[in-house]
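Posting this for the archive.
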Amino acid sequence: MGLRDRLVNRARSVLGKPAERPPASVPVAPPVLPVAPTAPVAAPVAAPRTGSPAGPPGVTETAPVEDPAEKAAKIEKARSRARKGVLLHIEKQGGSINMSDAHDFSERRFFIAHRGFSDMMGWWIEAGYVRYDEPIMHLTDSGRAFAQDP
């Protein structure tokens, strides 16, 4: 019985209707296909592609390699966007928010959870952007300024 069936039956029981019984499955033997003896066939080997329309003939094409510095810049841009986005969310909630709510927001909106959120939280506290009183995060004035900075 799948998840959908369990949900349907639970909804039916709440509404006072009898649960549906799943149809009885009848075991069916898998079809037997005749196998003819064949000689092993070697797979064709693809030759490297040369002479693209954009390049000179005889030059083999390769996949573009991303520059490590460029990749690091993209990652830092995404982190900065997430840091500011969560701080803006805290500001919209009145400047204080339960840490679990901030964690859920960062997970849903920016796909940052658990270890990433802990690292981000440590970064905010070191920079003085948030103040943490056990379950509640409070946004500081410097945190508001950082979040509003383009």
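The mean pLDDT is 81. The two ends are 52 Å apart (CA to CA).
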